[in-house]
Design a protein that fits this description.
CATH superfamily of the largest domain: Spore Coat Polysaccharide Biosynthesis Protein SpsA, Chain A
Strand order of the largest sheet: 7-5-6-4-1-2-3-8
Strand content: 15-25%
Order of helices and strands: EHEHEHEHEHEHHEHHHE
Number of domains: 2
CATH class of the largest domain: Alpha Beta
Bound molecules: uridine-5'-diphosphate, magnesium ion
CATH architecture of the largest domain: Alpha-Beta Complex
Largest sheet: 8 strands, mixed
Shape: elongated
Structural class: alpha/beta
Distance between the termini: 22 Å
Radius of gyration: 25 Å
Number of helices: 10
Number of strands: 8
Helix content: 40-55%
């Protein structure tokens, strides 16, 4: 029988894991695949590791990897994919926001419709602060315009993949990982399944607004160099404006004399152009800092314990 590995990144999920495990077991009981659970404990500060040890004792099909500290969900997903050996892999959150009931029909689509991957997206953002939804929509719009990978609004990391696709993702060993982009970048035929947003069963979300904002900047820098082009274009535009202004001032001084009038406008121009310069150096700095981290070649995660 073919094997399905269920990869679950967990950070402080002591309450959610038992509920997740029961729900997933129930939902997958008729699936004609050998199931294997691979929990990735991403340096949790609560009793997650104890819960996992206990589960792994009781059930042979439960495995876990435990990190030496919190490396972030991206690292946890990468570790899960790397350490998995199933013919199929599904990634899902521990909080049951990704409904396991969808998995059997995802498998059907792979077998009967010939897809390599079935991915999910939320059709609504119920229960989310409106400001967060607004920024999320702006982010997807920017990504759509500037990045060359296809990213679907509301896409979740919850997806069912064939081994070939998982191997392709594992070959992308970049340090600054942005999975939503990586999944699109590797290609393969993907079917999108919409579902309604759900509340997490227990515990709290790990994403503050600021963390999400940082994550979106990471995504833009990882999948597009368009901001660098913008910076150059803005630079050229400013040179042109400055040149025109010079001619204007020169002619005006020749006709009307009075060379010292107009210092308030001068002060405005200086601060404005200085701001634009800093903004553009900031953009360049962002790319350099990412390249710096990439060049160091540090490991994406460090395993402390596994079973
Ligand atoms: N997660 C993780 N490492 C982190 C943050 C989150 O492994 O540093 C896991 C978390 O345990 C959960 C999943 O990523 O299984 C999604 O996190 P969460 O539910 O907090 O995000 P949200 O659903 O609110 O976007
Ligand atoms: Mg969640």
């Amino acid at each position: 029988m073919e094997k399905l590995t269920i990869v679950v990144p967990c950070y402080n999920e002591e309450e959610a894991i038992p509920l997740f495990y029961e729900a997933a077991k129930e939902a997958l009981k008729d699936l004609p695949l050998t199931k294997e659970y691979l929990f990735v404990n991403d340096g949790s500060r609560d009793k997650t590791i104890e819960v996992l040890r206990k589960l792994a004792e009781e059930d042979e099909s439960v495995h876990y990897i435990s990190f030496s500290r919190n490396f972030g969900k991206e690292s946890a997903m990468y570790a899960g994919l790397k350490e998995s050996d199933g013919d199929y892999v599904v990634i899902m959150d521990a909080d049951l926001q990704d409904p396991p009931e969808l998995i059997p029909s995802m498998y059907e689509s792979i077998i009967n419709e010939g897809f390599d991957c079935v991915a999910t997206r939320r059709v609504d953002r119920k229960g989310e602060p409106p400001i967060r939804s607004l920024f999320a929509n702006i982010f997807y719009l920017i990504m759509h315009v500037i990045a060359k990978v296809d990213m679907v609004p509301g896409a979740r990391d919850f997806r069912f993949m064939k081994r070939t696709m998982v191997d392709a993702i594992c070959d992308m060993g970049e340090y600054n990982r942005f999975s939503k982009g990586i999944f699109g970048w590797v290609g393969f035929d993907t079917k999108w399944v919409p579902f309604e947003n759900r509340k997490r069963v227990a515990g709290k979300t790990k994403w503050s607004f600021f963390k999400l904002f940082q994550y979106s900047i990471e995504g833009i820098v990882a999948f597009s160099t368009t901001p660098l082009v913008w910076a150059s274009i803005i630079g050229v535009a400013f040179c042109v404006i400055a040149f025109l202004a010079l001619i204007f001032l020169f002619v005006r001084a020749l006709i009307f004399g009075d060379p010292v009038s107009g210092w308030p406008s001068l002060a405005c121009m200086i601060t404005f152009s200085a701001g634009i310069q800093l903004f553009c150096s900031g953009i360049i700095g962002l790319y350099i800092s990412k390249a710096y981290l990439e060049v160091k070649g540090r490991p994406i995660y460090i395993v402390k314990e596994k079973k």
